[in-house]
Write a structure and sequence with these properties.
The chain is mostly helical and about 140 residues long. It contains four helices and no strands. Helix 2 packs antiparallel against helix 3. The chain is elongated and about 50 Å long.
């Protein structure tokens, strides 16, 4: 169970580093759903029919993939439903997906899964990194020595 504490910091467009391609982000998040769903099914199959006994980390990978497949399409829904401010309205949903992606990276051990599953998970992580590049917050360099 994840608990998010803290305040919801509002962002404006000037807080972000680069430009935002809403069509690309929406397309990627829809594709993330399908890739995460496929990877989850493949990972579950790999765990079920594994020669060696699976551990809790392998099961956590399946759970993280499932959570990403649930939340990733919400990025596209937020982007599409708020065309006047797509990045700021979808940032909170992206943050949830980014947490599950970080959990996936920390628990994923490639040798526990078959090569096809490894390729799907690698593709998903690559897509999530590309989506993340649109949400990079600009760093203020004033006063840096």
């Amino acid at each position: 169970m994840l608990v998010f504490l803290g305040c919801k910091t509002p962002y404006n467009e000037s807080a972000f580093a680069g430009s935002f391609d809403s069509a690309r982000v929406a397309k990627l998040s829809h594709e993330c759903f399908q890739v995460a769903y496929d990877a989850k099914q493949m990972a579950r199959w790999d765990n079920k029919f594994s020669v060696v006994r699976t551990n809790h980390l392998d099961r956590d990978v399946v759970v993280s993939l499932g959570r990403i497949s649930v939340y990733a399409p919400s990025i596209a829904r937020e982007v599409e439903s708020h065309p006047e401010s797509p990045r700021t309205s979808s940032k909170h949903v992206y943050d949830v997906v980014a947490v599950y992606a970080a959990l996936l990276k920390s628990r994923y051990y490639a040798e526990s899964f078959k090569p096809a599953t490894q390729a799907k998970i690698a593709q998903l992580l690559s897509m999530l990194e590309e989506i993340g590049s649109f949400y990079q917050v600009a760093t203020d360099v004033k006063g840096a020595n």
